Fold:
Amino acid sequence: MDLKHWHLETDADGVAWLRIDKADSSANVLSTEVMMELDTVLNALQASTPRGLVVYSGKANGFVMGADINEFTAIDTTERAFEVTRLGQQLFDRIEALDCPTVAALNGFTMGGGLELAMAFDYRVALAGKKKVLGLPEVKLGLHPGFGGTVRAVQLCGVRPAMQLMLTGSPVTVEKGKRIGLVDRIATEDNWRQVVRGLVASRPAKQKPPLVERILNLPFLRPFIKPMLVKQVASKARKEHYPAPYAMIELWAKYGASPKTGYEAEARSFAELMCTPTSRNLVRVFFLQNKLKGQGGKPTTKIARVHVIGAGVMGGDIAAWCALRGLEVTLQDREQKYIDPAIGRAGKLFAKRLRDDGDRAAAAARLRPDVEGAGVADADLVIEAIFENLEAKKALYAEVEKTMKPGAILATNTSSIRLEDLRTELRDPQRFIGVHFFNPVALMPLVEIIRCEDTEQEALNHGFAFVKAIGKFPLECKSSPGFVVNRILAPYTSEAMHLVQEGVGLADIDEAAMAFGMPVGPVELVDNVGLDVVLHVAGVLGAETQGAVAEQLRGMVEDGKLGRKSGRGFYEWVDGKAVKPPRNPSSVPADIEDRLVLAMVNEAVACLADGVVSDPDLLDAGVIFGTGFAPFRGGPLNYARERGVAEVRGRLERLAAAHGERFAPHSGWSAL
Structure:
């Protein structure tokens, strides 16, 4: 056979060893060409059935990462989507029907279509490891499994483990995979071939889900379980925004993971979802993630040691996250008593994120208090995260520069001060950058990398590499007031305050934003960020400081109502949750959604026009991952294009006429 991506050999015992090794690719994906070749391989295997079949990967980084998402954008009709999906299902059905024992050897990442391929084999052997490498993440693309996964996952694992795997899209470790029935044996790099041969030779009975899971799949119980699953999903995502998890539940409730009826129903549902705006935009977001990761070149040296100055909430949490991700970290503040709370929070983070006691201890050992600042001399990167005072920061830099080693990078986590003002007395100002994290550090995926016009590219490369190494997305921004995220959030939260002044209910304002797709409403966001911080940012951005909105915020701050951190802001906070008053829909103006959303969209256009971010796709990505802007809408600029640039601009003009010049369309709309 003339094969490009698959390699088939039969050993002396008559066992066929099928290696997938996609040509010209660093990872295996199930492209159309790969699937067509698999069809050729299966024709040969069916014509001459081997004693056993083993599939394994020729890539060191894993088994199969899933379908080729690049091909999704070329499928433009539900008919074509159904045809492609059904053909994939039928290929996997042919594997399942082979008249010999079949084993899939999984050496790491086995995701989406890759796991669906593995589930079509009789047995799965996975290499031991602590990483979460087994998953069905299709829901994150607005889809559900389409190559038989909605059926086989339930058959192998049972209702609850399978639904959790598919509804969350979150991967699991090999150990958990074995507990829930995805994995039959766990092997090592040295003995996996022997383990595989043993399965082929002994052909043990296939595992079944626990009895209780099989009972839950019975037809008369499914109508009772379905509402519970829907309720769980509804607490996380609205059906009108994210239809895929609801479609998944409906498939199971109607067909019970039946091989006779479930596969075709899965394919039809998958095809319909693939052509929805939600899926199209979530696929766009997938590519935007890769674009964020692709920024910057390879630095000449690797950042292994980080010194953080300032052990407050931001500085302490940055230090903890870096230690969690494997870096050696020293944390400095004026006295040990200021560092201790940060070490306590770090311990909670390690306990939550790391299951193994040894891993927790190792992470804790990587984070060391350093009142004297001795770690500066060894650090590859020094991050300043003290309070927002220009002179205090400049004085600190003068001291730090005395002991920094040659080639080390000095960075600031400032959220409001221009880098040009901070670097005036530095010996090497072109190597000074901003690394602006967001609170809470552990949850927010974006970090803004701030540059001046003459910042060295090598320094930026170090910033990009550092951010990617700790599992975050970098966004390059020009030094300017508010950078991107704070600048775009400011008019959004400010408009919410205008609505409060007009007597619109707090919960109604938040509901309007969440109905659009925001993760939390602007009033709750202000309470979370802190009213004092919001007031400070408004001043930095040059917003009105004497208006009714600012006066209300200032008065609340003076009364100690700072939001969540003080237990009272616009809302009362109990056990970390906002206590919201009953809604009053009669108080809600008809234009509330546009007032909140288009304020952000207009500012995004302004950011692009001002060159804060030069690439509209990167700007969309930054706003999605930095503000939570509804991912299924593809970003503010994409939303404007889909709605219609002329229509949005006209709407802004009408809002400006009704509510004031703050809605006047920015001149940058003409270039969009």
